[in-house]
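Budget justification aside, the reviewers requested a transparent look at the raw inputs and outputs of the sequence design task funded under Objective 1. We therefore reproduce one unedited record. The lines immediately below are the structure tokens for a 233-residue chain.
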């Protein structure tokens, strides 16, 4: 997660925490950075005018000053449950972490009666996935997501189906789910061509900080006839 995104996420997390607030240690663990980074980020937010209070000493931490609630939303219980169901069905999907954060914000701003109806309806819906379904580590998935979203090259350590380990620098262009796995479809600089990398076979991933220009979509082929984009109805 880059710094602007983290600053926004920090503000929203403190809004959600309300009067409870959050300690630097809690925020550092959640965002997988050091407490020093959190303190610097809070200082940046405060200097920009964000209404964030800081309390020192035991029991101290950070919180939003005054009315930090989000504006009301008009989701029905069925709509909220449908979002939760999609997130449960694909817990390892790209941007699923952001989706769960969005769902938590949605539930936080619902009135007590609506939230109770959501929980009651949600208890009537079950979903089962194979327990042995392989998925990428959350940290690796976040790096790949950032690369796709920000159009930054990614350095991968990859283990192919024969057990061969290689290191690649790739341009992450697409994310696709097929044959029960998530794949990164990328332009591999090491092979000078398109390659598909199964995310659960990526042993490490790092953003290089080098940007790339989107390539012609025809290079990556046409999706299967039964494939759908996330925005297709």
């Amino acid at each position: 997660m880059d710094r602007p995104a983290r600053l926004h996420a920090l503000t929203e997390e403190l809004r959600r925490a309300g009067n409870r607030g959050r300690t630097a240690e809690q925020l550092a663990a959640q965002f997988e950075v050091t407490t020093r980074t959190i303190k610097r980020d809070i200082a940046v937010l405060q200097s920009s005018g964000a209404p964030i209070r800081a309390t020192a000493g035991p029991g101290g931490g950070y919180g939003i000053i005054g009315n930090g609630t989000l504006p009301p939303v008009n989701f029905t219980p069925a709509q909220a449950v449908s979002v939760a169901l999609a997130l449960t069905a694909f817990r390892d999907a790209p941007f699923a972490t952001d989706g769960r954060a969005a769902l938590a914000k949605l539930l936080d701003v619902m009135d007590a009666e609506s939230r109770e109806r959501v929980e009651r309806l949600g208890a009537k819906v079950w979903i089962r996935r194979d327990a042995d379904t392989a998925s990428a580590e959350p940290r690796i998935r976040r790096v790949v997501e950032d690369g796709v979203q920000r159009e930054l090259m990614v350095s991968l350590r990859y283990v192919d189906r024969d057990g061969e380990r290689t290191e690649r620098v790739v341009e992450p262009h697409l994310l696709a789910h097929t044959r029960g796995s998530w794949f990164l479809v990328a332009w591999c600089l090491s092979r000078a061509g398109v390659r598909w990398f199964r995310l659960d076979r990526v042993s490490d991933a790092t953003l290089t900080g080098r940007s790339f220009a989107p390539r012609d979509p025809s290079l990556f082929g046409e999706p299967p006839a039964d494939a759908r984009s996330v925005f297709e109805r």
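The first helix runs from residue 3 to 17. Residues 130 and 141 are 20 Å apart (CA to CA). Computational costs for records of this kind are itemized in the attached budget.
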